[in-house]
Amino acid sequence: MSSSPRFPRRRTLLKLGAAALTTAAATPLTGVKAPAGRAALPVVLPAPTGHRPVGAVDLHLVDRSRPDPFVPSKPFRELMVSVRYPAEPDRAGAFPVAPWLGPAAAADWDERSAPGLGIPAGAVDWRGMRTHARTGAPADRSGGRLPVVLFSPGDGGGRALGTALVEELASRGYVVVSADSPYEADQVEFPGGRVERAVPLPDDLTPEVIAALLEQHARVRLADARFVLDRIGALARGQNPDAGGGPLPAGLPAVLDPSRTGVLGQSLGGSVAARLARDEHRVRAAVNLDGDFIGPIALSGVAKPFLLLMSEGDSVEGNPGWASFWAASTGWRRALRLRDAQHGSYTDLQVVLPQLTGHLELPAAVGLIGTIDPLRSLAAQRAAVTAFFDRCLKGRPTSFFEDPGGRFPEWS
After folding, report:
1. Closest alpha carbon to 264 in 348, 152, 388
2. What is the pLDDT of residues 95-132, one digit of tens each?
3. If you average pLDDT over every residue of the chain, what do you get?
4. Where are the extended beta strands (E) located within 161-282?
5. Beta-carbon neighbour count of residue 281 at 10 Å?
6. What is the DSSP string of 298-340?
7. Which phi and psi (to 5°) does residue 234 adopt?
8. What whole-number distance in Å separates Cα of residue 235 and Cα of residue 196?
9. Residue ranges of domains in the chain
10. What is the rounded CA–CA span in Å between residue 264 and residue 394?
């Protein structure tokens, strides 16, 4: 088993599966520290552009119906999820700003994950990185019940990596539930500061081993997602799903409409989104952020609305799994390619890494996030994803997909 940071090797699994074992771009820098005397660099996320402030709450969920699939000696599966929602405008500002990562997870990311990106431990103030959501702020009930979007990150990635896109949806009238996959994600922080790290990957990552790992992780994600959907339903009925009985934001159950649920997934999470759209009656529509299709979903396709967002050089025709999925799908569907983008452009790293390149040498950054302007990339993604869910979950007509490149030339 390898003791080196997992993120570069995880990036190999994220999208390319068995085809690109040799393309991990970054060399782990375990033990390398930032230069002495240099203050840790601050990092900020772009604010959401919707007209509603955003509230946040983290929930600890425990599924006692099954043992943990990664740690069989553990008789139950536990998850951490973050809920983002529109908050009351007059009261949100009185509540604390939610961190990007909890303090224990931020310390672990700094020591074990960031070095795999070429970022020395101690170089960046990850603990001080803030979002634009207010922890515990009362939910805004003026708009009635709102559609729900379930977010699933890439293989090995934590739920925080989708924050900039998730908060945009919340600011535009959605309740977004982001779920981690403990023991697959690099680190997951539970109440009390307990951090559970990913189980080590095998040293011999052959194409067959990679395929088996991805299929296993997808199966676990599917079971997790169904459990989370159950808990969302319970929350909408006024129950508190938090295992510790932690307080819920005032009014949160009253703004959930589980009958209008979509799924948004990046990389492996995008494949899981497709499988949920195919198999779950509770899911109406799904978005895949640049992920290959894992398992039989590549051949079966879906009958529900589906949006695929791709990177530079990608095409539906050039990817056998995408091509077969597209041919088998019968629902409304669109595929858009983001010019000069790479796989990591569909994560928060697209706006984080450019803030560091003037201070640190990050030779792998272009290979991970491309050369697209990060703010334009984020704006284009926000526009496409919001337009899709507005159409499919809110029933709002949109002309966005008639000419997406007219507003955002970055789309092709």
Report:
1. 152
2. 999 999 999 999 999 999 999 999 999 999 999 999 99
3. 91
4. 175-179, 187-190, 194-197, 256-266
5. 6
6. HHH--SS-EEEEE-TT--TTTSHHHHHHHHH--S-EEEEEBTT
7. -65, -40
8. 26
9. 39-407
10. 16
* CB 243 within 8 Å of CB 78: yes
Query: What is each CA distance from 208 to 3, 65, 175, 205, in whole angstroms?
Result: 22, 30, 38, 8
Across-strand partners of 167? Answer: none
User: Tokens representing 62?
Assistant: 């425990």
Residue found under tokens 């101690």? 122
34 pLDDT band, cuts 50/70/90, is low
Comparing CA positions, the residue from 377, 382, 372 lying closest to residue 49 is 382
Q: How far, in Å, are 291, 305, 322, 343 from residue 319 at the CA level?
A: 11, 20, 5, 15
Average of per-residue pLDDT across 155-162: 97
State both tokens at 263.
């799924």
> What's the Cα-to-Cα distance from 406 to each of 210, 327, 401, rounded to whole Å?
40, 27, 10
Spatial CB neighbours of 377, under 8 Å, sequence gap ≥ 6: 338, 341, 345, 350, 410
1: closest CA among 154, 226, 198? Answer: 198
Q: What pLDDT sits at residue 54? A: 98
* 170 in Cβ contact with 85 (< 8 Å): yes
The three-state secondary structure class of 177 is strand
Q: Is the dihedral of CA 99, 105, 110, 114 positive or negative?
A: negative
Angle between helices 207-236 and 268-279 (to 10 degrees): 60
Q: What average pLDDT does range 79-94 have in this prediction?
A: 97
Fold of 39-407: Rossmann fold (3.40.50)
Looking at the predicted structure, is the pLDDT value of residue 294 above 80? Answer: yes
The confidence band for 13, taking pLDDT boundaries of 50, 70 and 90, is very low
DSSP string covering 85-104: EEB-TTTGGGSPEEESS-HH
Residue 83 has phi, psi (to 5 degrees) of -110, 125
Q: Which residues pair with 194 in a beta bridge?
A: 190
CB-based contact 340:332 (threshold 8 Å) = no
Of all residues in the chain, what percent are helix, strand and coil, respectively (each to 5)?
35, 20, 40
Instruction: Please give the pLDDT value at position 364.
Output: 85
